[in-house]
């Protein structure tokens, strides 16, 4: 199993304070990369489900979804509005699993792409229903360490109504951190101002380092390109259990 490290510290106050300016710069710089993004090759048409971060909803993925659809992928929103954790997807992720079952029934195993908390939820679903999942891509998701190695753990408790010291929550965190039986990629940044980059890496799968804030990370051109590269690299690999 992945070792959940308690000794990792949250990002510095300096990085925390820089989150909003860096996110704003990300948005302003997007037009400069339009030509490069349009030159990416067409994909294999697989179904992809986008899982937003804490308190985010479908709008946070408008540009990434458009990019993936232009590449030929069946990119879906998750369909539940803002991500409030278990309050949104069900205590056992049952609502989300039903959504994925419906997509998989018509299009085959689903690739999950999740930002922050969305990536952690993606890993939870892949642990419980690997038969439905082709691949998991997490983006700035702090799944491999203590939630207290973040600057937002109190906000998480407040929004979700869950406490980190609840044995059920701790057990779920350990389940999320454990190695998956499907291919995984973790996109992470050591300069993240909200969550420690060290706990966003995947020691049992592929890890791709970027230089990014946490806020707006799903809008970064290098994230678009990293996701496209991962999908392209795995296009020739048969879905698990379907060789």
pLDDT < 50 runs, ≥5 residues? 1-5
Q: How many discrete domains?
A: 1
* Succession of helices and strands: HHHEHEHHEHEHHEEH
Kindly report the spatial arrangement of strands forming the biggest sheet: 2-1-3-4-5-6
CATH topology: Rossmann fold
Per CATH, the class reads Alpha Beta
CATH homologous superfamily designation = Alpha/Beta hydrolase fold, catalytic domain
Indicate the mean pLDDT: 92
Straight-line distance between termini: 26 Å
Strand content: 5-15%
The value of Rg in angstroms is 17 Å
Largest sheet: 6 strands, parallel
CATH architecture: 3-Layer(aba) Sandwich
Number of DSSP E strands: 6
- Percent helix among the residues? 25-40%
The rough form would be described as globular
Summing up helix and strand content along with how strands pair, one would put the structural category as alpha/beta
With helices defined by DSSP (H or I, 4 residues minimum), what is the helix count?
A: 10
Notes on the structure:
The chain is an alpha/beta fold and about 240 residues long. The protein has a single domain (about 15-25, about 45-235), classed as 3-Layer(aba) Sandwich (Rossmann fold). It has 10 helices and 6 strands, in the order H-H-H-E-H-E-H-H-E-H-E-H-H-E-E-H. Strands 2-1-3-4-5-6 form a 6-stranded parallel β-sheet, with helices on both faces. Strand 1, helix 4 (about 60-70) and strand 2 form a beta-alpha-beta unit. Residues about 1-5 have low confidence and may be disordered.
């Amino acid at each position: 199993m992945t070792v959940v490290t308690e000794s990792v510290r949250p990002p510095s106050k300096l990085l925390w304070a820089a989150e909003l300016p860096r996110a704003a710069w990300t948005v302003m710089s997007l037009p400069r990369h339009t030509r490069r993004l349009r030159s990416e090759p067409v994909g294999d048409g697989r179904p992809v489900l986008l899982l937003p971060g804490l308190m985010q909803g479908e709008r946070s993925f408008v540009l990434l979804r458009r990019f993936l659809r232009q590449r030929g992928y069946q990119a879906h929103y998750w369909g539940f509005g803002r991500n409030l954790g278990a309050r949104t997807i069900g205590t056992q992720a049952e609502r989300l699993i039903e959504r994925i079952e419906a997509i998989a029934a018509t299009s085959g195993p689903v690739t999950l792409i999740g930002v922050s908390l969305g990536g952690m939820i993606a890993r939870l679903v892949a642990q419980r229903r690997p038969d439905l999942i082709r691949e998991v891509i997490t983006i700035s998701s702090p799944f491999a360490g203590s939630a207290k190695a973040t600057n937002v753990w109190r906000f998480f408790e407040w929004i979700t109504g869950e406490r980190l010291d609840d044995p059920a929550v701790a057990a779920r965190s350990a389940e999320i951190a454990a190695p998956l039986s499907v291919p995984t990629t973790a996109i992470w940044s050591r300069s993240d101002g909200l969550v420690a980059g060290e706990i966003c890496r995947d020691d049992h799968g592929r890890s791709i380092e970027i230089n990014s804030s946490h806020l707006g990370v799903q809008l970064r051109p290098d994230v678009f390109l990293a996701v496209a590269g991962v999908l392209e690299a795995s296009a020739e690999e048969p879905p698990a259990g379907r060789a």
